[in-house]
Amino acid sequence: MDALQKAFSTNPQSPFIAMRLARFYHNIKDLAQAKITLEKALDMNSNDRRLHYTYAKLLLEMKESSGDLIRYHLQKLFTPSDTNYDAQMLFGRQIFINGDRDKSKAVFYQLGTAKIGTEIREKLYYPIEREFSWTDCKA
């Protein structure tokens, strides 16, 4: 841990070091310090997709951030034509939770046309803890 902290303080622009240190903090259940580490790294590397992914997943786990902040970081992870399906699925999930049903429907429609195996397509990923009613979906 000391070596990672020293390496990060010397080279905070390294996404590799930042993610390793954040993972260490995550493993010892210090999510606040993991968040601080990733925020510092994102300040130095605002275009690094891996940092945005790691940070967004941490925010989802912490359940204390705004849906718009999570959406912002998830949106940085992919382009509409790429194969980063996990990021697209998380993005669609988040915008559904945020209430943008039309856009989430478009994202999930696009994912539905992706050429992926049945074993992946039929697995439940990232369940939503809240129940939604029909009136929520019509919003």
Description of the molecule:
This protein has helices at residues 2-10, 15-27, 31-44, 49-62, 67-75, 85-98, 101-112, 118-121, 134-137. It folds into two domains: 1-65, Alpha Horseshoe (Serine Threonine Protein Phosphatase 5, Tetratricopeptide repeat), CATH 1.25.40; 78-139, no CATH class. The chain has nine helices and no strands. With 139 residues, it is mainly α.
| The CATH class of the largest domain | Mainly Alpha
Number of continuous helical runs:
9
State the shape.
elongated
SSE pattern, N- to C-terminal: HHHHHHHHH
- What is the CATH topology of the largest domain? Serine Threonine Protein Phosphatase 5, Tetratricopeptide repeat
Secondary structural class: mainly alpha
Approximate helicity band = 55-70%
Based on the coordinates given, report the CATH architecture of the largest domain: Alpha Horseshoe
Most strands sheet: none
β-strand amount: under 5%
Output the radius of gyration: 17 Å
Uncertain residue segments: none
For the terminal residues, how far apart are their CA atoms? 47 Å
Total tally of structural domains: 2
- The CATH superfamily of the largest domain turns out to be Tetratricopeptide repeat domain
β-strand number: 0
Overall pLDDT, averaged? 89
Quick synopsis:
With 139 residues, the protein is mostly helical. It has helices at residues 2-10, 15-27, 31-44, 49-62, 67-75, 85-98, 101-112, 118-121, 134-137.
Jot down its keywords:
single chain; mainly alpha; Serine Threonine Protein Phosphatase 5, Tetratricopeptide repeat; 2 domains
